[in-house]
């Protein structure tokens, strides 16, 4: 009877299992069904299965079969979580982003703050993959494509974040913890992205962009202006970067000009070149039109000076495309240093060749130095004044233009310093003490002086003298002759 009782009980359990076969089979097939839903991206059905298994676990946590089912479903849930985060690392649009974040919230794996960080990290990974694919061979192409990619994709990410997460609603912290400023998460990430872009921009500008700073400045300003709509206007951060780039480009160009001048001087010989232009024509041009940008033609008689000026003018033309007024003192100082180096080259040339100079070569060397001092330097000063108008500089400083000289040589080369360096190789100028009548009349040339003085001499009782005698009696300097 005892054995029959066991058999009857086993038979009853078998009959009960047979009657509940369908329901038991459904429970046992949950892990397989969960895996199928996850691999085919049926995330809503997978979430329903997860919720059902959680209820089973609460009711029958002690049953080993249920424990195995829960463990297998948990593995499939982890796979679904990985797939959802991986979708955020692709070129996903806003509707798909909303669905993915909805699934992640239903999974109840992350807190609200962790969900924001996870979203930004995943989208940041995708953005960095886009930027890493930009070719870096040409700095201009690299920075241009980087600007375009950041402007388009970064703005899309910001739009997606603001559509999904409402920063106006405070994140409810867990009990016993302080409230979290969720807006700091987003703004910190945006600040990091802008800082990384500025670093890339500065690095490419230092590599050289071929004199196209103005084009890049326009693109970057448009980029910063578009970000002003999301409260991340960074145009103010662009100014010092482009200032440093413009100054570095100008410094390189002036150094190349000095190197070219030195090479020219190494092979230069003082020869009597045919004066096609003459020494009076360029003086007349410069005196008649002091505000023009026409270079002094007298420099064509001296090829090293002409080549040096051409290189400096090329540097000025590149600087003119992107010429911040704040660079006025730095550009002036750079140009003064280049002129000091040029002066040292001239002095070294004189020391090396002075013992072999003939009288004519000595005269040509003096003319060379005078052209450098009296034609090249004033012309460079006029170029600086056109690049950096005194009225504009005074307006930025907040002082009257007449008081600008108190702030030193902001946009004017100190010609006296260069003249002092060359004073040792130039002859001293002879000065003529003017007569009282000459001081009153303020003559412009010796010829005018003689014309005015001759009638007074004829009225005297003494024998009249000729104009030639008057010239011979008066000490006349070399320049007046």
From TrEMBL:
Main location: Golgi
Entry keyword set: Golgi apparatus, Membrane, Protein transport, Transport
GO cellular component: Golgi membrane; Golgi transport complex
Protein name as it appears in the record: Conserved oligomeric Golgi complex subunit 8
Biased composition (Basic and acidic residues): 471-481
Source organism of the structure: Phrynocephalus forsythii
Localization per Swiss-Prot or TrEMBL: Golgi apparatus membrane
Cross-referenced Pfam families: Dor1 (PF04124)
Location of the region described as Disordered in the Swiss-Prot/TrEMBL record: 460-481
């Amino acid at each position: 009877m005892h054995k029959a009782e066991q058999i009857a009980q086993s038979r009853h359990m078998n009959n009960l299992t047979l009657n509940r076969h369908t329901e038991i089979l459904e429970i046992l097939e949950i892990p397989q069904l969960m895996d199928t839903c996850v691999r085919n991206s049926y995330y809503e059905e997978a979430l329903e299965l997860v919720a059902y298994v959680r209820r089973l676990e609460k009711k029958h946590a002690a049953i080993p079969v249920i424990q195995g089912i829960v463990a297998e479903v948990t593995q499939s849930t982890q796979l679904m979580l990985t797939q959802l985060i991986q979708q955020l690392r692709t070129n996903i649009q806003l509707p798909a982003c909303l669905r993915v974040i909805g699934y992640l919230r239903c999974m109840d794996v992350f807190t609200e703050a962790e969900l924001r960080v996870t979203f930004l990290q995943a989208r940041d990974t995708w953005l960095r993959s886009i930027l890493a694919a930009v070719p870096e061979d040409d700095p201009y192409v690299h920075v241009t494509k980087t600007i375009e990619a950041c402007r388009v994709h970064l703005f899309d990410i910001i739009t997606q974040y603001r559509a999904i997460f409402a920063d106006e609603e405070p994140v409810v912290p867990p009990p016993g913890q302080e409230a979290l400023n969720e807006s700091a998460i987003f703004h910190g990430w945006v600040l990091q992205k802008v800082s990384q872009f500025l670093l890339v921009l500065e690095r490419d500008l230092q590599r050289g962009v071929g004199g196209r700073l103005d084009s890049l400045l326009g693109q970057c300003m448009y980029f910063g202006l578009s970000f002003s709509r999301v409260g991340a206007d960074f145009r103010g951060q662009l100014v010092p970067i482009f200032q440093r780039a413009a100054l570095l480009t100008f410094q390189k160009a002036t150094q190349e000009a000095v190197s070219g001048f030195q090479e020219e001087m190494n092979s230069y010989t003082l020869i009597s070149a045919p004066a096609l232009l003459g020494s009076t024509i360029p003086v007349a041009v410069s005196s008649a039109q002091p505000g023009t940008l026409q270079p002094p033609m007298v420099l064509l008689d001296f090829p090293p000076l002409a080549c040096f000026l051409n290189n400096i003018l090329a540097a000025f033309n590149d600087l003119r495309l992107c010429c911040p007024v704040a660079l006025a003192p730095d550009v002036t100082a750079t140009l003064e240093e280049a002129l000091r180096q040029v002066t040292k080259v001239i002095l070294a040339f004189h020391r090396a060749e002075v013992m072999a100079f003939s009288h004519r070569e000595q005269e040509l060397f003096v003319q060379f130095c005078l052209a450098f001092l009296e034609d090249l330097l004033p012309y460079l000063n006029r170029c600086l004044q056109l690049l950096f108008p005194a009225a504009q500089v005074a307006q930025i400083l907040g002082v009257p233009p007449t008081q600008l000289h108190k702030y030193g040589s902001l946009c004017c080369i100190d010609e006296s310093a260069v003249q002092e360096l060359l004073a040792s190789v130039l002859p001293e100028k002879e000065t003529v003490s003017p007569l009282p009548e000459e001081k009153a009349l303020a003559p412009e040339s010796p010829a005018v002086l003689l014309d005015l003085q001759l009638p007074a001499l004829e009225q005297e009782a003494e024998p009249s003298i000729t104009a030639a005698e008057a010239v011979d009696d008066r000490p006349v300097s070399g320049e007046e002759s």
